[in-house]
Specification:
This protein has 228 residues and is of the alpha+beta class. Helices cover 24% and strands 32% of the residues. A 6-stranded antiparallel β-barrel has the order 7-8-9-12-11-10. The longest helix is centred in the first third of the chain and has 11 residues.
Length: 228
């Protein structure tokens, strides 16, 4: 089933392009939600937490990319709809290069390709089902808002905690203590995605939590707890 335009998530790779402003204006005019990427790490973070429908890459940006960036772009071409664009200053429009010759412009790419692509995140680390008892707090003293809950799964980079609390927000800095590991030092984390209760059918409400600062011994204990 096709998605609506306002349900799409598009990545814009145009960090080295003088035409970045024109690309952004196109998405705003079309009512398409987009993420303008400034670095390789930011790209990987967005791909890990947000289901993406397509990638729009400025040709100059891809040509000037580092070796690792080019490898990542090549990988993304195999996974997502991927179109290359170039701003034509003389004609004041966006030229495109796409494998399907039927797609002649960016509007067609959005309306005919991206809306029919099942959005997905890019997993860079394996998630395993694991129920851990955790305490989440807004500060490292656990003196403010706190919640006791459990995890649905975990990976090397973080956990998914079950919660329907309205307090937690995407991008929020939080602190986590995991009951099953010996160290009670709070793990510094960030909420990278929130799934509201009832937002998605057959989906557990909660927050995806990324570890920002975790002790080596805590990481080792978590690894031992993870089923292999």
């Amino acid at each position: 089933m096709s998605l609506k335009i306002d349900e799409l998530n598009i990545i814009l790779l145009a960090k080295d392009s003088a035409a970045q402003k024109q690309y952004k204006e196109f998405f705003i005019h079309e009512g398409v939600r987009f993420f303008s990427i400034a670095s390789e790490s930011q790209l990987e973070n967005v791909l890990e937490i947000i289901p993406i429908n397509g990638i729009v890459a400025d040709i100059r940006t891809t040509l000037r990319a580092t070796g690792t960036e080019k490898m990542l772009y090549s990988k993304l071409e195999d996974i997502y709809p991927f179109i290359r664009v170039r701003w034509d200053e003389e004609k004041q429009n966006i030229n495109t290069i796409f494998p399907d010759d039927h797609i002649k412009n960016l509007t067609q790419f959005i309306n005919e390709v991206c809306v029919n692509f099942d959005p997905r995140v890019l997993r860079t680390s394996t998630r395993t089902t694991l129920s851990l008892n955790v305490i989440i707090s807004e500060n490292d003293q656990f003196s403010g808002y706190t919640e006791k809950t459990c995890t649905l799964n975990m990976s090397e980079s973080g956990i998914f905690a079950i919660t329907s609390s309205p307090f937690w927000k995407e991008g929020q800095r939080i602190f986590v203590v995991i009951n099953e590991i010996s160290s009670r030092t709070p793990i510094v984390c960030t909420v990278v995605r929130k799934i509201f209760w009832g937002e998605e059918s057959l989906c557990t409400p909660g927050i995806s939590i990324r570890f920002d600062s975790i002790l080596d011994k805590q990481q080792d204990e978590l690894f031992k707890l993870s089923p292999r």
